[in-house]
Amino acid sequence: MGCAGFTCSKHCLCALNILYVMVSLLLVGIAAWGKWLGLVSSFQVVGGLIGVGVFLFFVALAGLIGAMKHHQVLLFFYMIVLFLVFVVQLSVSCACLAINREQQDHLLEVGWNNSQSTQRDVEKSLNCCSFRHVDYNTTCTATCFPNHSCIGLFFSFTEILGVWLTYRYRNQKDPRANPSAFL
To answer: Any transmembrane segments, and where (predicted)?
Structure first.
C-alpha cells in the first residue's frame, strides 16, 4: 500500500503538527529571550510574537488531537483555520516581496522616525548607527547589512500541505473502526 493509506496520512499530519508545536514554542521562547536580554524594548512586538506563538500552539494542538483520534470536528476546524492562516500569510509574504527598494526605504524610514525605542533597538541589534548617514561625531563604526528572507513564504506552503493532508485524512475510513459506521 505504500504511503497512501490511513496510517501514513495520520503520521504525516501528526509530524506536521509536532513541527508547528515546536515552531510555536520557539516563537514564544525567542520573544521572551529577546525581551529578557533587552534586545527588544517594544512591548507590542514581544506581545505580538507571544500571541502568534500561543495561537499557533493551540491550532497545532487541535490538529494533533484531531489526527490522533480521527476526530472529524477538530480536523474540520483545524483545516479551516490553517487555510485562513495560509491565505493571510501568503498575502503578506507576497506583498513584502512585491514592494520595490524605494517603497522599502520609505516604510523603514517611517518606522524609524516613529519611535526612539525602535531606533535604539535596531542600532543595538544590528550594530549600526542612524538610518541613512552615519554621524561621525559618535563612536559607532559598524555598518548595517540588509537581510532578505523568504521564510514566511516557505512556511505558508507547509500550511497548505497541512490543509491537504487534513482534507485527505478526514475523508479516509479508519481500518480498525466498525465497518458499518459512517467515517
So the answer is: 12-33, 45-66, 73-92
**Measured distance CA(61)–CA(35) in Å, rounded:** 26
Contacts of 163 (CB under 8 A, 6+ apart): 79, 82, 83, 86
Q: Yes or no: say if 89 and 152 are a contact pair by the CB < 8 Å rule.
A: yes
Q: Letter for the amino acid at 137?
A: N
C-alpha span between 43 and 35 (Å, rounded) = 8
Q: 59 is written with which cell numbers? A: 491550532
According to DSSP, residue 173 is labeled P
Residues 72-84: tens digit of each pLDDT? 899 999 999 999 9
In this predicted model, what pLDDT tens digit does every residue of 83-129 receive, in sequence order? 998 888 888 888 877 878 788 778 777 777 777 666 666 666 666 66
Q: Is the pTM of this model over 0.85?
A: no
- Short-list 75, 72, 56, CA closest to 64: 75
Sign of CA dihedral 162, 164, 170, 175: negative
DSSP, collapsed to helix, strand or coil, labels residue 113 as helix
Cα–Cα dist 67/105, whole Å:
45
- Under a CB-based contact definition with an 8 Å cutoff, are residues 128 and 151 in contact? no
